[in-house]
Amino acid sequence: MLPYRIAYRTLISLTDPEWAHLAAMRLIAAFGRSPLAPLVARTVGYRGGEKVTGLLARPLPGRVGLAAGQDKKADAVLGLDALGFAFVEVGTVTPEPQPGNDKPRLWRHREPTALRNRMGFNNDGADAVAARLAELRSTARGKKAIVGVNIGKNKWVSAADAPADYRTCARKLAEYADYLVINVSSPNTPGLRDLQAVDSLRDIARATRKGAAEAGVRAVPVLVKIAPDLADEDIEAVARMVAEERLDGVVAVNTTIAHDFGEGGLSGAPVRERALEVVSRLRSVLGRDYLIIGVGGVFGVGDAENMVRAGADLVEILTGFVCEGPLLPGMLNRALARPVR
Ligand SMILES: Cc1cc2nc3c(=O)[nH]c(=O)nc-3n(C[C@H](O)[C@H](O)[C@H](O)COP(=O)(O)O)c2cc1C
């Protein structure tokens, strides 16, 4: 980890962050297709002892996965899986392809250790991602991988028409997903976060369920991803809605806009504390019967353990992976295979 951290703070920091991101993902995708991947999976990766059961339809190989936003194309799942992620959440995917916001739209921060982005759901659209996932699922290794699909609405679609976008994505993508995530919490699509208001969210939840049912496959768990900036009573309202609509759980949290570094949402160390609070509040409202995926500022074993102590069943990382390097997922999964006290 130390050599990577040094490289990140020196060489990597000299590069354009979005270029570095794309280059890294291309490398990981190529690595995933190569015969090297299964070999690496057996060494640095994580093929732990006991499977984690009772959370999704299929047992998971571990508790730590990749958060949405890193593999928006869904073309690096095998490589990420070989690096030790127990599951990969791809997306956000919208019905139609869209370019996202103008560049620059991704920045690194050294103190506190963070990323800031205003990507704006740049993605290839539901048809292209569905085709890639179909190809993935046609191979033995691809079938085994645990994949969540995070869905959103196109930028030009109004709040009134948003449910139809989530329904379309669910219909096109549910077949390939171990779980779906309704993303209403990215700060970079104007008006999106207003959809966290319970009445809007309820319509979107129902539309997503309908879309998933129209896909005609087994019931796919549906979760909602929320922002760290919601007030405590709004978090509780979302949790109650999740229970009333018989959704399966919550992913907490997305990036925060509560900062003065400039445009976009901040991730990494600055969201760590709030992520723990949100997870713990959700758990206290939802009880044990719902899936909570904790995400935000997990950079090491202690952070991941704190997330589990706060009430998370599963943990996701993104900024930690970028800043700490490719050995982190395997290390965290090995650590969380032991009981957390
Ligand atoms: C560059 C970047 C892009 C992101 N894109 C998405 C996205 O498309 N959908 C989403 O739900 N979250 C997205 N996120 C948020 C992450 O999934 C995660 O919730 C957040 O970064 C907090 O976790 P972290 O501190 O481990 O990064 C993105 C984050 C970053 C840094």
The hetero compounds bound to this protein are:
flavin mononucleotide
Biggest sheet, spatial arrangement of strands:
1-2-5-6-7-8-10-11
Average pLDDT confidence is 94
Q: What CATH architecture would you give?
A: Alpha-Beta Barrel
How many strand elements? 11
- Estimated structural class: alpha/beta
Fourth-tier CATH superfamily name: Aldolase class I
The biggest sheet amounts to:
8 strands, parallel, barrel
- β-strand percent reads 5-15%
| Helix proportion range | 40-55%
Number of helices: 13
Describe the structure.
- The chain has a single domain, classed as Aldolase class I (TIM Barrel), CATH 3.20.20.70.
- Helix content is 40%, strand content 15%.
- It is built from 13 helices and eleven strands.
- It has helices spanning 2-9, 17-33, 36-43, 77-82, 126-137, 140-144, 162-173, 198-214, 232-244, 272-286, 301-310, 319-324, 328-336, and strands at residues 64-66, 87-93, 106-109, 114-117, 147-151, 179-183, 222-226, 249-252, 265-268, 291-295, 314-317.
- Helix 11 (301-310) links the parallel strand 10 and strand 11 (314-317).
- Helix 5 (126-137) runs parallel beside helix 7 (162-173).
- The two termini are 25 Å apart.
- Residues 67-69, 72, 91-92, 106, 115, 117, 119, 150, 183, 186, 225, 254-255, 267-268, 271, 295-298, 317-320 line the site of flavin mononucleotide (FMN).
